Amino acid sequence: MHAITIEQPGGPEALVWAEVPDPVAGEGEVLVEVAASAVNRADVLQRQGFYDPPPGASRHPGLECSGRIVALGPGVSGWSVGDEVCALLAGGGYAERVAVPVGQLLPVPAGVDLVAAAALPEVVCTVWSNVFMVAGLRPGETLLVHGGSSGIGTMAIQLGKAVGARVAVTAGGKEKLARCAELGADVLVDYREQDFVEELRAATGGAGADVILDIMGAKYLARNLDALAVNGRLAIIGLQGGVKAEVNLGALLAKRAAITATSLRTRPLEEKAAIVAAVREHVWPLIASGRVRPVVHATYPMSRASEAHRVLESSAHVGKLLLTT
Description:
CATH superfamily of the largest domain: Medium-chain alcohol dehydrogenases, catalytic domain
Protein name: Quinone oxidoreductase 1
CATH class of the largest domain: Alpha Beta
EC number: 1.6.5.5
Largest sheet: 7 strands, mixed
Pfam family, one: ADH_zinc_N
Keywords: NADP, Oxidoreductase
Enzyme class: oxidoreductase
Distance between the termini: 11 Å
Structural class: alpha/beta
Helix content: 25-40%
Shape: globular
Number of strands: 15
């Protein structure tokens, strides 16, 4: 088969479509013939040499895919050859075939085509596990999403609105904010021109956000704490703004706030399976009903993954970038 390989870390040109050995479905795995994968920030970090796959995972990038099952490994039940699926991966999505632990499989949701389904697993599992399973967003609360026009952001807006929350977003520029508004965002903050703490306070009568989903890390830590409501919860899922910052513990205590930081790729199989099961139960019906949908900016042949990486790094996109085999 063919897959994207990274012989040496570097720029987008380091992604090379090459012939590699076929994967084999092991115990508790299925072999999926990939229709599409999606580009994530983690793939860029891996390409640059900053984010190695966890032990035992495929060395090829790609944290999600969609396709058809072509073989069942030992001990697999409940799935059949020919089933159309999408999957959460620890790696290997940028390839013609990938072996997937059965607990990380999802059926393609009703009303979503096979290629577009590749836009779902990573963002839905990330948002659901952090905003709902960890931070416990409830109806009537306010959710602040940084990077509202990203793949994660576009899904967080929709899921927040679907459960009855008020959603605020930060994004760069009127066009991106308009797209966020189309998805249901209530409070729109252009981080290039506005201070999100002030804007959020004004929009909430000084209360702030009950839950913040943050991709920036250190750069936004102090300001996120200022933006939190009493009993607020800050969920950090990215470090685009650095890894080290000081925390005012007095402010944290005064607000009775909580800060969590999680990653998805390195979690044990049983934890990923629990997240995938929760997504299938709670989110898949919302997608089937049309209340939540994948947002796809553009699709590229997988052999041209370097072009998709350049677009992602330019932040010129809204939603997901897909790669097709």
